[in-house]
Amino acid sequence: MPNTLKNSVFSALVGLGGMLAAIASAQAADKVSYGTNWLAQAEHGGFYQAVADGTYAKHGLDVTIVQGGPNAANSALLISGKIDFYMGGPQGEISAVEQGIPLVDVAAIFQKDPQVLIAHPDAGIEKFEDLAKLKTLFLGKDGYLTYFEWMKANFKGFKDEQYKPYNFSPAPFLADKESAQQGYLTSEPYEIQKQAGFEPKVFLLADNGYSPYSTMITTTQTMIDSKPDVVQRFVDASIEGWYNYLYGDNTKANELIKKDNPEMTDGQIAYSIAKMKEYGIIESGDSLDKGIGCLTDTHYKAFFDEMVAIKVFKPETDYTKAFTTKFVCKGTGMAMKK
Question: What are phi and psi of 293, to 5 degrees?
Answer without folding.
Answer: 90, -5
